[in-house]
Amino acid sequence: MPERIIVINPNSSQSVTDGIDRAVEPLRMAGGPAIECLTLKEGPPGIETQAHVESVVRPLSQLVAQRDNDAAAFVVACFSDPGLHLARETTTKPVLGIAECGVLTALTLGQRFGVIAILDRSIARHLRYIRSMGLWDRFANDRAVGLGVTELADEGKTFHRMVAVGRELREQDGADVVVMGCAGMARYRDRLQAEIGIPVVEPTQAAVGMAIGRVRLGW
Questions:
Q1: Both 117 and 89 in a single domain?
Q2: CA nearest to 40, candidates 27, 50, 53, 51
Q3: Separation between Cα atoms, residue 5 and residue 139, nearest integer Å
Q4: 83 contacts 100 by C-beta, under 8 angstroms
């Protein structure tokens, strides 16, 4: 099996893919799997609604099928985990979703996790997912920064809002670990963690880290 992990950004914003690529750089190592980050050109500029989620399911699974022969694992790099189950039916290789992996990683870092969403309308999707995972008792809250995916490139505004929301999750909701609720936030993890003083999980890093383990251990 080729040791290549393919990370798919299901939106069409190359800047988001570039941020993901930088975020997973620490996971590239001599002797480890190659990590290739791709942009789904058929996707919307940002996945912000259920309609956006549904629209990328088929093209994402088609891309998985096209790359199946040269991949050891796939990562779906959107916090809605769009098309995750269809992708898992498309290939026998491991397919990991960043929301699932990000939340599971948070459980190892604290007792109650909070999520930083992009928009208020994203929260309902996140809550459905957390309930379906059976983790409601470990969930603190989900709060939005009020910025769309493409707006996250404005570093000053985005970081200010993320710090404010991170502090609210910590101080008002009792979160002792925070999960970033969008792959477009990847560039802010280190600074945010330093600013709010509790662990911050960047979910694509979490998913790629798990994918490396799956590939190396043959799970």
A1: no
A2: 53
A3: 30
A4: no
